[in-house]
Amino acid sequence: MLSIETIASIEGRKLLHSLFRELRFERQLSPFKILYITWKICTSELNVGNYTNQDVTILHKIGFFRGTAIWMEEIINRFFFSSVLSLVYFGAAFLILVIGMNRFTDYVPLEIMIFSVMFEATMLILMFFTMLFSPKDDSYFIEEKSGHDTQDELLLEIGEIGRDLASIAVQLENMHESFKDLVGIQGNLVESLNEANKINTQIIQPNPEMIEYMKQTNNELIEFKNTFSELNKSMIDIKNEKIDDIVKKHLSEILKEKL
Predict the structure, then answer these.
(1) pLDDT for residue 259
(2) What is the distance between the alpha carbons of residues 127 and 108, in angstroms, rounded to a whole number?
């Protein structure tokens, strides 16, 4: 059996939080019943086992006023602050609605006006006490996290770091493969550029064999031109000789006929 000195101690406050979570989420009791049980434990109850499965005994009571203050700090302010704030907003909206209806109509009884004002005043007083008993020190939450929670967080951080390192390794491997492909493409491009440069060099500066072949062709063309000129000249001479023979023949015939 676990024993704690008072409910106002750090262990007692931790006990209140664990008790609230058990009643709220495991046993799923109504909020009003949870408020009553926790208030009774804070003010007068010593055996917590009457309301929970935890075998815990409180050695000393802290009294009605101090117990109610602890209850306001650790239960109302931490777990029901939003509910109190919602009631304040609801009371303000209801009061504004009643005042508006009373301003434009004559169907709002005086009792409703008084009730709305009192309701809003009550909610504001409740809000005042809730904020008045706000927790002033949360250091025990930090101490609570220094045990197994810290180890769990460290393990979680190490797991995340390992996952990030594995992801980085995969990315580096992919980058290495991409770099190898890029180097291969670059090598092919350099080879293509060398071939293109060689072709351009051959176009700009023809090789000696081509120059010699072009000279030989030019000489043959000159010889062919000279030969063709001589042949043309010979044909002209032959043509002139034939014309002379024909003229002579006709002249001889003409002379024969005259004589």
Answers:
(1) 62
(2) 28
